[in-house]
Amino acid sequence: DAGITQSPRHKVTETGTPVTLRCHQTENHRYMYWYRQDPGHGLRLIHYSYGVKDTDKGEVSDGYSVSRSKTEDFLLTLESATSSQTSVYFCAISHSERELFFGEGSRLTVL
Amino acid sequence: RKEVEQDPGPFNVPEGATVAFNCTYSNSASQSFFWYRQDCRKEPKLLMSVYSSGNEDGRFTAQLNRASQYISLLIRDSKLSDSATYLCVVNTNTGNQFYFGTGTSLTVIP
Fold first, then answer.
1. What is the CA radius of gyration of chain B?
2. Are residues B96 and A102, on separate chains, in Cβ contact within 8 Å?
């Protein structure tokens, strides 16, 4: 299995609070991604990174920010969580035009 | 229009049956194609890549039709353990972007 860990794996928070999810890889892959998965929508890209300090928006980036200060870490921040951000968040890595490897997911509930 | 479209199913088939899933993609410049399997409350895992010439891995066969822009997955001799959601994934190679279908649910019945 690819070396990807996500933390926390589960989190319950209240509306308006900031939340940071962390993705850590040991594979030295260039590309890292954050997706959310919701019933009826499948996996949707939030943000992705193509190198240290190089990030770009995906299709559902509103309300989210990311940072990548090291190759191995990609952080997803919800500045002020809303109930619509209740979801399962998956981090994924790729070595360039090859398959994606996913982390185990972070289940976030915003009350 | 969605980048990747799949029939969501569900497909309920008896053990031993053959089942086929199809997926269409909209971007003719897409270069890489994959099938992923996702079990309930788990992360997606790569089942197989799809090559232009078609490829087989045991009971699983994947086909790509570039002219019609669709990808297929055939599962022969279905097992109970094949029950999962199967995701079609396409990479445009532009910015290494991956696009997902919503998944097709398969339940294999004893």
1. 13
2. no
